[in-house]
Design brief:
Layout (H helix, E strand, L loop, with lengths): L2 E8 L4 H17 L4 E8 L5 E9 L3 H10 L1 H5 L2 E9 L7
Antiparallel strand pairs: 1-3, 1-4, 2-3
Protein name: YciI family protein
Organism: Phenylobacterium kunshanense
Family: Belongs to the YciI family.
């Protein structure tokens, strides 16, 4: 299966929105555990949550986009910027 990196940056001053949506987001990601190889929050230089990163093994880019679209964080409007890119794992393994 192809591998994709999903890189999502939070909107400014969105910590309350992130925390209010967090449990639904975590439950969603857990429900898709077969597709999610690595995931977690990203932090800014001050240690505050600034976004999320996912490495997905899914059938194609459309499936990666569908994963993103169904995420409660996406549906809540948390992100200011999203990048979805295919990646070839050259070193290490998932």
């Amino acid at each position: 299966m192809p591998t994709f990196v999903l890189h999502c940056l939070d909107k400014a001053d969105s910590l309350d929105l992130r925390m209010a949506t967090r449990e639904r987001h975590l439950a969603y990601v857990q429900s898709r555990a077969a597709d999610v190889k690595i995931a977690g929050p990203m932090f800014d230089d001050a240690g505050g949550m600034a976004g999320s990163m996912f490495i997905l093994d899914v059938a194609d880019k459309a499936a990666a986009q569908a994963f993103h679209d169904a995420d409660p964080y996406t549906q809540a409007g948390l992100w200011r910027q999203v990048e979805l890119n295919p990646v070839k794992i050259t070193f290490g393994q998932l």
